[in-house]
Amino acid sequence: MLPYYMLSVVLPMFIMLPLSIKWQIRRVHSVPWLLSMGAVSGCSTWITGVLLPGSPGVLRALPGPVLVVLLTVIVLLVCFFRDPERTVPEEEGIVVSPADGKVVYVKSIEDGEFPFPVKKGRVINLDEFIIENSFMKRGVLIGIAMNFLNVHVNRSPLSGTIRTIHRIPGEFRSLKHLSSLLENERVCTLIEGKDISICVVQIASRLVRRITSYFGKNDICCLGDRIGMIRFGSQVDVLIPEVEGLQILVAKGESLKAGESVVARYSIHHGTM
């Protein structure tokens, strides 16, 4: 029979195993669950070493602050890699948020220009941002900033066909600087719906080293489907072209939930202008 303190190491492994399988199915990298398993095992082993008689003295000697650090790691990893189900609105003619987070800007696009003076005080052409010259000339750009505790699984803002997935290599700078939006690594996903096409731009920050896409070119996705994940804080922008009856329903400072929060409405059975 295993000593009690050994059970404190084995049991967490059985707890973490189902989670690790789920994360692998979701195509999440395996390192986080390994770290979580180690942290849970370490914490439970320390607690058992203190409370149960007959446990090795080395367990009792483990400093208390180590437990705090391990518990913190567990909480952060569980929060970051959680992937809750969402109630997707059953409506037509809506655009839902592709990301959890806070709206940092809602900017109008005119003449296909990026709506920030970021290169020596001048406004640059939008195609430098999305690498899709013919996508849109007029519309709205909504920026959604994610913090470490937001759900980082991104969802489709509409139902349609994935026409383009373009990974643009770049740097990993802080997104506090507007120029980073154009210089950081990003993945642009263009989704073509029946009445509107929308571009979702996942932008990496200094902490991000991986942006994952769950769909491929010409795949069909539904409103609110999981389309990818961006790691450890960052930003997701959504580009909405000007179409018939377009109404933007969010403003700077609002908190959004991916797949649930409606950010815009448009008239159905009309093409882009």
Task: Describe what this molecule looks like in 3D.
The chain is an alpha+beta fold. The protein has two domains: 4-80, no CATH class; 94-265, Distorted Sandwich (Glucose Permease (Domain IIA)), CATH 2.70.70.10. The protein has six helices and 16 strands. The protein has helices spanning 4-25, 31-51, 57-60, 64-80, 127-130, 180-183; strands spanning 94-96, 101-109, 113-119, 122-125, 139-146, 153-155, 160-168, 186-192, 197-203, 211-213, 220-221, 226-230, 234-241, 247-248, 255-256, 262-265. Strand 3 (113-119) and strand 4 (122-125) form a beta hairpin.
Q: Please give the radius of gyration in angstroms.
A: 22 Å
Name the poorly predicted regions.
27-31
Name the helicity range. 25-40%
Specify the structural class: alpha+beta
Largest sheet: 8 strands, antiparallel
* Mean of all residue-level pLDDT scores: 78
- The CATH architecture name of the largest domain reads Distorted Sandwich
